[in-house]
Backbone:
């Protein structure tokens, strides 16, 4: 459970293969995905990719570009250009989609042209004419796209596999898919150790893409166990990276996915607790840490986090106590001042009254 690279004595080989450790690594600040309700505003110059497709880069990528028949993994949001009606958003599902270049559906031809020009990690805004989208008739089922609608895609290429035959996940055997996902996970762990968090997350997301819901629902017995042994560590590793990147809500989402499958997973509870603590959700964080401690009672990292939560709550209580003490002290001082002021008024009234009586007596004697 202890996530510190420096503080671990001898990490087990099993831990190294399945899950990364994170706490001792340098913090890297990244940008979370945009809100996504409307297309992003992009100032970069448009690159013309074809007669009906152009691209504006939002974030630069790295490495080479995919070739024909590469299996690309990507996230995207899609809008109709004129009305800005959003009709698809893969980010909401937390699972990237697969696109085999050269074997895409007709309505995704413009998207495929754009993706073929992008590097791993690149994010761009694609402008696609209706001829390379849903065409003259549009689409009235799902997704709902009006006839002759030009399209906008906000796309991020997570990565791609170069395969000469363009073998899609659906054409792979169970062992091939699990093996491909495991290789991606190991690549992600290596990138993480080099503090390349964004690139590591791309590998984890690609591994998760191999373990999609459509695939997992078909598995049982040893194959289900084998798949979960790859998939869940990838979600936990994603959470660890996202905590480093201060993207706490996203980290909580990945921990929730693991806890749906394994409600007693102490690492998922621990990392969700850390993310909640960073968001100031101290009661909920303490509950997660206590559950994690129940399933891993000897883990020192959980104890440290529980102490940190208790110390923070104590500091908040002390601050509130001082604040209220100041308020009551102010009231007491105001009361004492008021009493002092009242005595002065009484004394002044008595002196005035005494002066008036003396003045009257002098007048009577004079008369």
Residues:
């Amino acid at each position: 459970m202890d996530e510190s690279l420096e503080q671990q004595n001898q990490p087990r080989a099993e831990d190294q293969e399945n899950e990364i450790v994170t706490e001792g690594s340098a913090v890297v600040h990244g940008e979370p995905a945009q809100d996504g309700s409307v297309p992003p505003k992009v100032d970069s110059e448009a690159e013309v990719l074809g007669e009906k497709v152009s691209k504006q880069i939002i974030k630069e990528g790295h490495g080479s570009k995919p070739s024909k028949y590469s299996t690309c993994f990507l996230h995207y949001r899609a809008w109709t250009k004129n009305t800005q009606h959003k009709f698809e958003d893969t980010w909401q599902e937390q699972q990237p989609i697969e696109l085999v270049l050269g074997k895409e559906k007709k309505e995704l031809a413009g998207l495929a042209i754009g993706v073929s020009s992008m590097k791993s990690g690149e994010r761009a805004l694609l402008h696609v004419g209706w001829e390379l989208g849903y065409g003259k008739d549009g689409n009235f089922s799902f997704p709902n796209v009006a006839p002759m609608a030009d399209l906008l895609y906000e796309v991020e290429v997570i990565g791609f596999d170069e395969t000469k035959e363009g073998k899609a996940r659906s054409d792979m055997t169970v062992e091939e898919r699990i093996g491909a996902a495991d290789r991606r996970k190991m690549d992600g762990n290596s990138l993480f150790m080099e503090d390349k968090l964004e690139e590591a997350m791309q590998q984890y997301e690609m591994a998760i893409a191999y373990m999609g819901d459509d695939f997992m629902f078909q598995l049982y017995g040893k194959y289900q166990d084998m798949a979960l042994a790859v998939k869940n560590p990838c979600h936990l590793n994603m959470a660890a990276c996202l905590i480093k990147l201060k993207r706490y809500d996203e980290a909580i989402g990945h921990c929730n996915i693991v806890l749906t499958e394994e409600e007693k997973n102490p690492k998922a509870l621990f990392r969700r607790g850390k993310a909640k603590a960073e968001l100031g959700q101290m009661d909920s964080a303490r509950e997660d840490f206590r559950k994690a401690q129940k399933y891993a009672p000897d883990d020192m990292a959980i104890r440290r986090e529980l102490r940190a939560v208790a110390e923070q709550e104590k500091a908040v209580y002390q601050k509130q106590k001082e604040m209220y003490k100041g308020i009551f002290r102010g009231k007491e001082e105001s009361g004492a001042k008021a009493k002092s002021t009242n005595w002065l008024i009484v004394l002044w009234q008595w002196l005035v009254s005494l002066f008036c009586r003396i003045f009257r007596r002098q007048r009577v004697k004079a008369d």
Notes: The first helix runs from residue 13 to 18. Residues 37 and 86 are 7 Å apart (CA to CA). The beta strands are 47-50, 53-59, 71-80, 86-89, 97-100, 123-128, 151-161.
